[in-house]
Structure formats: C-alpha cells, structure tokens
Amino acid sequence: MSNEGLPTRSITINPSDLLELQKDVWSDQFAPVTLVMDGVEMEARLRFRGGHTRNYQKKSYEIRYGGDQILHWNAEFDDPSMIRNALSFRFFNMIGVPAPETRHMWLIWNGQPHGVYLELESVDNTFFNKREIPAQSLIYATNDSANFSLIDPDTKQTKNSLFSGYQLMKGGNATKLRLVNFIKRINRPVKQSLRVYLAKRLDVTQYLEWLAGAVLTDNYDGFDQNYSLYEHTPTGQYRIIPWDYEGTWGRNPYGKLCRNDQVPVQGFNKLTRRVLAYKRYRQQYRKLLNKLLASHFTVQVLDPVVEDIYSGIREAVRDDFTRKWPYETFLNEPQIIRNYIQERRNILKKELKQWTD
C-alpha cells in the first residue's frame, strides 16, 4: 500500500501504551507517541475519539502536539465515499458558515500502513484566531441532550441539569450559567419579549445559515448534538458551528442508504422551533433556502467539488485494504451524491411551496 500523493502522518507508540489505551476504548486518556508530520518529528499525545466507532477495528484518533495544537483523524469507516464530512464542511464554508478545514492523509502506524484518514481541524482557540473571530466562550454539544429543551430525550422527564449534553471547552461557571439561563428563556411561551431576547442573545442570521446547511445536507444527527456554540465577544450573541457530518448526502451515520427526506425543511430542536415561531425569521429563512437552492446547492456547483476531493484520494483508497467497503462501492459514490442533491432539491422545493404560513 502507498499514500498515492496524500500527505503522510507517522505515529510510533510503545506497545505497552497501546495496550493501556485498548483496555478501555471509551476512556479519553492520552498515550505518549512520536509524530512525524510534514517532515518534522515531535513528541505528541494520542487518544481514541468518536462514538460507536470506538468499537471498530479501525479507530479514529485525536492528536495533540506543540503545546496547544489539536487535530482529529477520522477513519470514516462507515462512509463508503470517505468524503461526506469533507464535502459538508466545504459546503458550509461556501455558504458563509465557518466550519473545520479538512484534508485526507495517509497514516503510518509503528511502521505499518494504517490507510486513508480524514484530518479535521479542531474547533478551538486556534480555529477562532485563524479566522479572526473573537470568541469569549466555547461549548461542545456531545450528545442528544443538547436539544435546547427542558426535557431529557431518554427519560422524557425534566432534565437534572440543563447543561446536560454539553462540554465546556472555553470559559467558566459563568459561561455554563449563561447557557442554562438561555435554555430556560427560550422554553418560555412565544411572545414579543422572547423575540427581543433571541435578537439580543442569538445571532439569528448566522443560526439560520447553519440551519439551512444542516437541512440541505439532511443531517438528522446535527440538531440535538454534533455542533459547537460560542459567544461572539463584541455582541455577546451565540453562534453555532457544525461538527460530524458523516451521515449526510444520502447515507446515514452507519453508511446505509437512506431516504432523502429525514429532515423537514423546518429542521429540528427547541431553539429552531422558537426562532421559526416568528414570521419575520420564517420569511428570512425561506428566502435564504430559495437562494441557496438556486446558487450553491446544485449538481452543477457541487459536482466539481466532489470530483476535486475524489481525485485526490481515489488511488489511495484503491490501495487501502483497511476499509470495510469495496473499492467498487467507493467508485459509485459520486453518482449517489449527485442523485441525492437532485432529489433533495425537489423535496425541499415542494416543502417550501407547502410551507406558506
């Protein structure tokens, strides 16, 4: 196997440290490793990452190096195309929603080929500094309790903590309290006072742009988890960043073909319902969706993007025998994505015509 032109990352890990990691794949403990990246050898730390994918033979990793630098290496094991995350984040950046940069890479593990991975930029201080975005806080939505509701999705009872489902990444107790208060407020009755509060505490335009991206890509898992919230320092408003868009573009998170109408045009979660309860925001959102359907979300615009990503990994994927999907399936994926775009366009156009209130 060879990297076929992809950037190579090399990891050397002591077998005893690897065994320690493997004792509990759900642990977030790190192991010391030697990383060679871009021709530079350095000391680093590595851990397993992901949800159900931690049980897979080919795992995903988080790597920390150089003091505060973080990268995520996704095996993309369930996605036969290996590009759905990359395509989704490229699309979000195209429509003006900051999303992680990605690149495919070839991983060498203790001298042996480990196959093709997707390297994702971490959402952290470096992410914001690179884009010159002043952020006073950062919170990850890590499970489906991050639904902006007072009700636990599993027990159907009132949540023990309204911070359930979230992980504080930047900020302190005051940051957590502000989010808890935000959730309390948006769960109050829909009145003019709530619209005033939303306009003050939420960057509604940015939220609607994110909502449009999640709806267009049909990401069922992207509303109650798999996003990040940050408070924009100059305004104090919450903004949202997408994360984990593997289950999109016609396949679910496990790689199975699925219906292309999983997500309604109005999206999900309590915050989305509160925002779209106001006619002004509904009109703004419908105008935005119609604009994107005419400009960005077309086969003509996105097919070259798909081909650009595909052309860079096609030969490496052919030589990667660590993957669960056959190469023939990989080769058919661009057509599946093209079919998805056309069908999703038709679905959303029909729903928009019917959604006239």
TrEMBL record:
One of its GO terms (molecular function) is kinase activity. It holds the Pfam family CotH. It comes from the Bacteria. Keywords: Kinase, Transferase. InterPro entries: Spore_coat_CotH_CotH2/3/7 (IPR014867). PANTHER family: INNER SPORE COAT PROTEIN H. This is CotH kinase family protein. It comes from Paenibacillus spongiae.
